[in-house]
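User: Fold this one for me? It's Replicative DNA helicase.
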Amino acid sequence: MSIDELEQGYRPAANAGGFDRTPPQDVAAEQSVLGGMMISKDAIADVVEQLRGTDFYRPAHEVIYDAILDLYGRGEPADAVTVSAELVKRGEMGRVGGAPYLHTLISMVPTAANAGYYARIVRERAVLRRLVEAGTRIVQLGYATDGGDVDDIVNNAQAEVYAVTERRTAEDYLRLGEVIGGTVDEIEAAGNRGEGMIGVPTGFADLDRLTNGLHPGQMIVLAARPAIGKSTLGLDIARSASIKHGQTSVVFSLEMSRNEITMRLLSAEARIHLQKMRNGSMGEDDWQKLAGTMGKISEAPLFIDDSPNMSLMEIRAKCRRLKQKHDLKLVVIDYLQLMSSGKRVESRQQEVSEFSRALKLLAKELEVPVIAISQLNRGPEQRTDKRPAMSDLRESGSIEQDADMVILLHREDAYERESPRAGEADLIVAKHRNGPTDVITVAFQGHYSRFVDMAS
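Assistant: Here's what I get for Replicative DNA helicase.
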């Protein structure tokens, strides 16, 4: 089918301020993006970080893009044949111009290497279209005052422009050294107010002896009830990998900001009370320790990404990029139940199950261990014995099935302050696909935001 024959698939032209003009678009760039994606899965990884389906001007291209991403997300090849079959299954082949048009897209692209560049063009045109649409709505707001409050109208107009710019300022991962400056600024502001291991070492001697480290391709589920320390334990493992052993790790935090994460890392490494950092009561000795620690860890290959509303596709693409550029060795996702696909699903349980399977595929594809931090249901709190079990994994039994290792974190003093085991924590290795299970006891130093070996 020719380009002219597909004209009817274009989005309606925006009438900006009464002038009949075609909205900003670049159909050739859209075609080159899709063609490149069907040639190389590396191109898909480059594109998915930059584009969403709604960025395409032509609706047919959005349909093709969504089909490619679905195949890619399931770990299946996305070429002209498989994309065609997917579109037929969906009953959407007619909307895109048939199988010949898919082959046309591929034939138009000499190499997939430039797909990321074409994607930037498509994204920029999409932003311009949204700006035109926002401008039209602002004009309408101005004329439709009807005696309304001018401040409210200006507020609404600003909101229209902000909605356009919000995606342009989406955050990305940053090296720890790049985050430290902002974190120290926050601390200063508070002060003005007042063994030869095969796998990635966890930093806990008994756990490393049991597991021989975390291995490529493993999905490790680290689970606990709220406020037990699961995020802290995940950071401890990333800290061990990157700061102590120089192995590249990335922490995707859907809960804490990058400054909060960095403050915890500095507290743990420098042995400065976290509360002192937060309330600005650090003394001279603390500042000296902080300065020394900053110098030590600034070059650590630890990356932090606190981008909001991250999809699994974006996480996967960023991990691929880190693997290619920095030899990624460990991924930590905090935490599983905060992830969202943005799609309509039958149930939250089904959605979490899909995340679980996809994270296992990610670990295998990149050959790195992936730690998925997960929240337990209320089961432990409703029992006399508060120790968690695998059956307490929240929202999905498939988490237990997909995981190569399940570590359940338990602290008696979280339930009973006067417990004789106050300050101790159990790492319950409830599942270990390639080895024995056991209970590892460690010390919890909450004031330093860290867990350490009992001997320490």
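One thing worth pointing out: The CA atoms of residues 26 and 212 lie 53 Å apart.
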